[in-house]
Amino acid sequence: MSPYDPSAFPPFAVTVDLVVLTVRSHALCTLIVRRGEQPYQGRWALPGGFVREGEDLGAAAARELVEETGLRAHDPGDPPPLPGNGAHLEQLATYGAPARDPRMRVVSVAHLALAPDLPAPRAGGDANSARWAPVEELLGEAEPLAFDHGQILADGVERARSKIEYSSLATAFCPPEFTVGELRRVYEAVWGVALDPRNFHRKVTGTPGFLVPAGGTTTRQGGRPAQLFRAGGATLLNPPMLRPEV
Amino acid sequence: MSPYDPSAFPPFAVTVDLVVLTVRSHALCTLIVRRGEQPYQGRWALPGGFVREGEDLGAAAARELVEETGLRAHDPGDPPPLPGNGAHLEQLATYGAPARDPRMRVVSVAHLALAPDLPAPRAGGDANSARWAPVEELLGEAEPLAFDHGQILADGVERARSKIEYSSLATAFCPPEFTVGELRRVYEAVWGVALDPRNFHRKVTGTPGFLVPAGGTTTRQGGRPAQLFRAGGATLLNPPMLRPEV
DNA sequence: GATCATAGTCGTCTCCCTGACGATAAACAC
DNA sequence: GTGTTTATCGTCAGGGAGACGACTATGATC
After folding, report:
1. For B98, which residue in chain A has the nearest alpha carbon?
2. Å from B196 (CA) to C1 (C1')?
3. Which residues of B touch A (CB under 8 A)?
4. Stated pTM of the model
5. Which CATH number describes the domain made up of B6-165?
6. Is the CB of B219 under 7 A from strand C?
7. CA triple A90-A91-A93, angle to 5 deg
8. In tens digits, what is the pLDDT along chain A, a chain of 246 residues?
9. Å between B161 CA and C19 C1'?
10. Where are the beta strands (DSSP E) in chain A?
11. I need a surface site. Which of A119, B166, B181, B232 has the fewest CB within 10 A?
């Protein structure tokens, strides 16, 4: 039988779901929207939507990201035109358990977005409201997310946690110009650990291409003025920044 | 408009494609099948097929793997019942460019399988024939694979190359019992570099839980008899085995 | 059987990175 | 001024990795 015989394969709906992560007040947070309809009406879920005809998967994810946050995404390959002005966006994984949506066969291509701290989210599309929630709360059993979104969120968080180890991706959580201390607080929030400020400073300033001085100082964190940096061209950290054991 | 209105989203076909990697005679090889029909008739492609109704994505990949190679897959989480008797199988990424298949909208969830060296592949399903080909040849520009399979293969190879750095996954390329030298030749083939046998031996035997002695020796590689090992329970290598720079 | 080639295994030495932590600097709050 | 906070520089010890010497145990070759 021909593999292209239309009767030979079942039709699927394809969606993109977004795990949008940011760091707000020392906590790793993700964007969730309240579902306005069945199933899981009234429950919190990850933002997402259907992939349109003629639309690439990454383009659909970028479109959803703009709709929900106003953030423009830039490809991981390209250097961001204005670092910090857009979000990092990458494909995470695909979820297609037959019963994950009770109404039809839906395959969801989850994407992971990392963004600097933002003002309140815009509620868009089919959501009554939207908010940033600490992932710590969501991954607890209190009020699980709709569908398999709890699993998707967990996978996205784990991806982010491991990826900042060996890449410069943590700068995606920072504004265009940032201090070493701000970057350190990103690592601390994502990993949920405390890092030694002196060793961290030595590591990040000593890695060629990771940070480039932006030429000013700031005192927005209090204390002694800190040098401002931009993200350098290096994307891979070698040797990596190792996550502490516990 | 309701997101579940059937007219609100286009139907997709969903397939799984497999990057099956193995090490044959010091080279990293992948399984390819010759296409029997249009498009790309007569060209080599990755094995794959449609996801069936009610079938999970991973199950579809496992089914295709059995059909093409006879290998049973085991989940990355579980320890293999008989190490080396099955293949490691994990989801790789999803490819859904609108024109990747000229005839219809197809989203392909690519999977990566790592297997020990096998006898000649069985040609199955819609393929005239199948063979193991060194990835080095396929990634050159000589005769590109059908569809976007060249990109999928490249992504799969890169995943394998980076993952054996920080996990014990290289043992998935080995038979149930293997020597340190055989494991080293796996790393050398996957990375395409030469490793110092003494430092490699110190590293892998010194990492707790990576290897457990199997209790015998073998001389199948020539030279002094070597101790046989099995894969230990450890899945994460910390500190990782770093890929040499060049 | 002596010699050689091949592979495996054990040690040593040095360098670099890391973690732990002392000390100093430059702002602000009172 | 004094205390507090944060940033930044330095020092020191320990561990892992690269480079490489030395020895061992097999089969192949003469």
Report:
1. A54
2. 34
3. 2-4, 8-14, 37, 49-57, 91, 93-98, 103-105, 107, 109, 126, 239-240, 242
4. 0.92
5. 3.90.79.10
6. no
7. 150
8. 344 555 568 999 999 999 999 999 999 999 999 998 889 999 999 999 999 999 999 999 999 999 988 888 876 555 444 544 689 999 999 999 999 999 999 999 999 999 998 766 665 544 458 999 999 999 987 789 999 999 999 999 999 999 999 999 999 999 999 999 999 999 999 999 999 999 999 999 999 999 999 988 998 888 899 999 999 998 999 889 989 876
9. 30
10. 13-24, 27-35, 44-45, 48-50, 72-74, 86-95, 106-114, 127-134, 211-218, 226-231
11. A119
- Chain A residues whose CB is inside 8 A of the B52 CB are 9-10
Query: What burial class does residue B59 get, using C-beta atoms within 10 Å of its C-beta: 0-12 exposed, 13-18 middle, 19+ buried?
Result: middle
In this structure, which amino acid lies at residue B143?
A: E
Task: Confirm whether any atom of chain C, the nucleic acid strand, is less than 7 Å from CB of B181.
Answer: yes
Residues 6 or more apart in contact with residue A6 via CB below 8 angstroms: none
Domain A167-231 maps to which CATH number in 1.10.10.10, 3.30.300.30, 3.40.50.2300, 1.10.10.350?
1.10.10.10
Considering only CB atoms, A3 lies closest to which of B4, B50, B97, namely B50
